[in-house]
Amino acid sequence: MRIKILEQQIIQAVRLEDVVKRYAELFRGSKSGKTLRCNCLFHRDDGKSFKVKVTEQTYECGICKEAGNVVDLVQSLVGCNETEALYVLSDWYDIPIKRPGNLAAQKNRRREKCSKDVSLLCSIHENREFNMLFESLDFWKGDNALFAAGHKYLELGLSPSVLPDKYERLAGLMLFPVRDGEGVLQGFLKYMAEEKDQGCICYPPNLADNSLLGLYQAIKAIEKLGFVYLVWNCKDLLAMHVAGFTNTVACCNGNLTDQQIHLLLKYANRIVIIHTAEVPNQVRATKTAARLSFASAVTYRLSLSKKDLSALYRRMGVAKFEYYIRQSTRLVFLNALRDKWVGEQQALAKQSNAAKSKEEKAELRSNQIVIRNKLDKLSGILNENWGHLSWFFDKFVVH
């Protein structure tokens, strides 16, 4: 009840359009001014599909269908729950409210709870009898080069407590172990290659919510490189590992859970989210990046064409796929650096306008020139390399 009262207080005090202006430039959407528009905050959009209804204080995108009020918007863009969104808004607009403790302490308690939840899954151990059984089975029946190489790389594994009733059910399946950071087997994921669009089936049922596929085998590469790739299914995971990007993990349930965020942050603070350009995937990536950022992670987004990673791998082959992903990642990091310098330049411009002495203004303007020269050089490199990568993609994938 107290949260509902607080929500009403925040909604009455904060204007939705003011919050939207923090992220995008708003334009008049109707003659009366009761509707405002901007490019969508959740997906790549040049058509000003995001509509703000001033009177109702609600928003809706005509493309991705994201909708809600000001609290919903902050939840999605900041990556927090409803209560935290209310506190964020109160901080932004200096609204005095009583808080039940420190938010950072609450966040730490939630992470500790996630850790306990994950540790409950780490009680299943490998059994020598089952290993002997698996060696006698033919786990791979197919001619897909990606899976033929990948399933061996990622290792076969099974948890005794989740063994199907009949061993025959395992023949023709690909089984991937899901382990914790110490290598203890928590369960397995099986993929039925002959059934299209069936995707992944996990045992036990909560395995997909509490684990990240491929994490154990990715730990060394993550620690060495300092960042992790996050993909969304086992096929993309296989493609990345076979091409040498062994710092890749997969989230197989569509949305990153608190437990999975906790696992990621144990090993890396920099996460590259790879997603395709379809609107639903862009929205999911936006919300995922927000939740990771709220948990103090540094996120980057690598947006592909409408082809997923496994499709690109099959089309390009290992060498060209490896080149494409490596170059794309490099450019994503350079884009982030450019954004950082743009922010610094804008901050210096504000400081210069507020400066009173000529000496201070001259120093700030000198710093602006230095950053502007860096930006010009970096923009030239980015334009040239993105152009080359686009040509490369069109040559080896589109045609």
Short description:
The protein is of the alpha/beta class. The chain has three domains: 2-100, DNA Primase, Chain A (Alpha-Beta Complex), CATH 3.90.580; 128-314, Dna Topoisomerase Vi A Subunit, Chain: A, domain 2; 332-398.
Describe the 3D structure:
- This protein has 399 residues and is an alpha/beta fold.
- The protein folds into 3 domains: 2-100, Zinc finger, CHC2-typedomain (DNA Primase, Chain A); 128-314, Dna Topoisomerase Vi A Subunit, Chain: A, domain 2, CATH 3.40.1360.10; 332-398.
- 52% of the residues lie in helices and 13% in strands.
- It has 15 helices and 12 strands.
- The strands form 3 sheets. Strands 1-2-3-4-5 form a 5-stranded antiparallel sheet, with helices on one face. Strands 10-9-11-12 form a 4-stranded parallel sheet, sandwiched between helices.
- A hairpin with a 5-residue loop joins strand 4 (58-61) and strand 5.
- Helix 3 packs across helix 4 (82-92), helix 5 packs across helix 11 (258-267) and helix 14 (318-354) packs antiparallel against helix 15 (358-398).
- The termini are far apart.
- Residues 113-130 and 194-199 have low confidence and may be disordered.
- This is Zinc finger CHC2-type domain-containing protein.
- Keywords: Metal-binding, Zinc, Zinc-finger.
- Residues 36-90 form the Zinc finger CHC2-type domain.
